[in-house]
Write a structure and sequence with these properties.
Helix content is about 25%, strand content about 0%. It is built from 1 helix and no strands. The termini are far apart.
Length: about 40
Amino acid sequence: MNRLNRNRLLQADGLAAQINYTDYLVSNDPAGSLDFFYVATK
């Protein structure tokens, strides 16, 4: 479902189509971040 919504937003001519990976930064402050991404190794 997430992929369908993301693809639909990218097809639209609007602000969502202008978002790029360079708009994000890596932060060590989870409380002040929008998304949480975690990489774990075993």
